[in-house]
């Protein structure tokens, strides 16, 4: 179980955290972290380090702070942070050797680092690795030429392979002119990676990331509130049972089944096995609720395996194009992606109500499109987020890799998914207060199944 630390002056407390990224840019006046010691992506950090130092780009209030994180990767904080001037905060810590640490300066749920004007700091994640006990401090090296080659490799990757290079009107020539000096002077792969991530923020693409060793640096950020109350679902859905980390099931008294799947991640495909056991159990029900409102994607092939249980015939659910600098429009011809009925099991015979929302992106959006190919399916909730990139790695040759969206994901009619999302068949608008005593989205799906 994860936890977070949010300390007000002299008052310790534990709170929950999710270190997620948002593609929506903060207001121009929102303060930002401009440097941290150690910083995001740093390796070979001295475990004898006594404090984490964070510098902001404008004068800050000293009335509160949010230091977010949890579990074994969260550093031991010895006392409340101390301010040096109006822009630098020092966090006393005790570190272990050969250990990965992760924390956040502010996070989506807790934003008490604020400027003197009251604006919350844009959440800034910090992940670093301490070196082994007794290992000598690494010598700094001059890497200007190597970094220049890496900059050139990054330019080529963006120009030749990045599917959304031109989508948001970024002036990449100006961006490289602005960042090249700092990139050339970066003394470590981590420093180069951080500057690269800052440059790529301009793309506003959740699928664009930077990897330095085992450290993954995000570029875009998103904060979304799912259109359901995770904590209340077990009390709302009869015979609720957690089947695995990814799957929960339930059954209503009037012969309607319920399945919730929170990820299509490939880390543990066996975690999705209860989906098929549930289909066997619900084979004769008159209707089934498939709830993916908490699902942000994963492995599209795993999503397709499940969707194949509901479609009566092969159908194109999506198209995509890749960059092709040699073609007139810079892209390949559209390639169809198809969902087909499974050959190893009979198709589900009843109606299916799919619950969806703003949390859905990437491979879960593909799942929604697959399910829309079934005439027995209807979707309920809110428009999905609109982000799909199929990211591929590009090695820059200096210890840094960038992952760039390799395709433009298209709806079956050829229109762009990115930044648009998928509309539900039946929109159900509901605020947080609407879930205090019920679940309007679930109720809408059930009403249709019962009609």
Describe, in plain words, how this protein is organized in 3D.
With 451 residues, the chain is an alpha+beta fold. Helices cover 19% and strands 24% of the residues. The chain is built from eight helices and 24 strands. The chain has helices spanning 144-160, 172-185, 189-200, 233-236, 273-281, 300-307, 363-371, 440-450, and strands at residues 4-5, 14-15, 33-37, 51-56, 67-68, 76-77, 82-84, 88-94, 100-105, 124-129, 209-212, 215-218, 241-242, 247-252, 256-261, 287-291, 315-322, 335-339, 351-356, 377-381, 391-395, 400-405, 407-410, 426-427. It has a seven-stranded mixed beta sheet, with helices on both faces. Strands 3, 4, 6, 7 and 8 form a five-stranded antiparallel beta sheet that branches. Helix 1 (144-160) packs antiparallel against helix 2 (172-185), helix 2 (172-185) runs antiparallel to helix 3 and helix 6 runs parallel beside helix 7 (363-371). The longest helix has 17 residues, at 144-160. It is globular, with a radius of gyration of 24 Å.
Question: Which key phrases capture this entry?
Answer:
globular; 5-stranded antiparallel sheet; 24 strands; 451 residues; alpha+beta
Low-confidence blocks of residues: 1-28
Query: How many DSSP H or I helices?
Result: 8
The quaternary organization reads as single chain
Helix content percent band = 10-25%
Euclidean distance between termini CA atoms: 41 Å
Find the count of extended strands (DSSP E, 2+ residues): 24
Largest sheet: 7 strands, mixed
Rg calc:
24 Å
Instruction: Classify the secondary structure makeup into a structural class.
Output: alpha+beta
Strand content: 15-25%
| Strand numbers in spatial order across the main sheet | 13-14-15-16-19-20-24
- Tell me, rounded to a whole number, the average pLDDT: 90
Shape by Cα distribution = globular
């Amino acid at each position: 179980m994860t936890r977070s630390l949010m300390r007000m002056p002299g008052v310790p407390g534990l709170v929950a955290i999710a270190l997620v990224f948002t593609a929506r840019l903060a207001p121009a006046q929102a303060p930002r972290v401009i440097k941290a010691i150690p910083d995001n992506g740093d390796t070979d950090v001295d475990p004898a380090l006594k404090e984490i130092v964070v510098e902001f780009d404008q004068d800050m209030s000293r009335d509160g702070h949010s230091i977010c994180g949890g579990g074994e990767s969260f550093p031991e904080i010895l006392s409340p942070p101390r301010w040096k001037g109006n822009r630098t905060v020092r966090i006393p810590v005790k570190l272990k050797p050969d250990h990965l640490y992760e924390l956040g300066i502010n996070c989506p749920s807790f934003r008490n680092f604020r400027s003197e004007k009251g604006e919350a700091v844009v959440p800034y994640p910090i992940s670093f690795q301490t070196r082994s006990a007794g290992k000598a401090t690494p010598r700094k090296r001059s890497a200007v030429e190597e970094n220049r080659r890496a900059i050139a490799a990054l330019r080529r990757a963006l120009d030749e392979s990045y599917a959304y290079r031109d989508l948001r009107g970024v002036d990449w020539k100006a961006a490289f002119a602005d960042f090249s000096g700092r990139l050339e002077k970066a003394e470590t792969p981590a420093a180069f990676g951080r500057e690269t991530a800052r440059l790529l923020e301009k793309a506003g693409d959740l699928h664009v990331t930077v990897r330095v060793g085992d450290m993954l640096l995000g570029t875009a950020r998103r904060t979304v509130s799912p259109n359901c109350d995770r904590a209340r679902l077990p009390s709302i859905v009869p015979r609720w049972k957690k089947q695995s980390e990814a799957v929960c099931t339930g059954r209503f008294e009037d012969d309607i089944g319920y399945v919730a799947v929170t990820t299509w991640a490939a880390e543990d495909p066996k975690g999705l096995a209860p989906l098929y056991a549930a289909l066997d159990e619900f084979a004769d029900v008159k209707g089934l609720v498939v709830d993916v409102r908490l699902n942000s994607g994963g492995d599209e092939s795993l999503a397709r395996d499940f969707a194949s249980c509901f479609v009566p015939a092969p159908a194109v659910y999506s198209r995509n194009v890749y960059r092709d600098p040699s073609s007139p429009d810079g892209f390949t011809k559209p390639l169809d992606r198809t969902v087909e009925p499974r050959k190893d099991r009979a198709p589900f015979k009843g109606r299916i109500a799919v619950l969806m929302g703003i949390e859905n992106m990437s491979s879960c959006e593909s799942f929604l499109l697959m399910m829309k190919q079934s005439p027995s399916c209807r979707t309920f909730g809110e428009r999905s987020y609109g982000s799909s990139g199929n990211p591929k790695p590009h090695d820059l040759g200096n210890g840094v890799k960038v992952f760039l969206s390799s395709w433009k994901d298209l709806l079956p009619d050829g229109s762009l998914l990115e930044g648009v999302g998928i509309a539900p068949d039946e929109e159900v608008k509901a605020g947080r207060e609407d879930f205090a005593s019920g679940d309007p989205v679930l109720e809408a799906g059930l009403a249709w199944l019962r009609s």
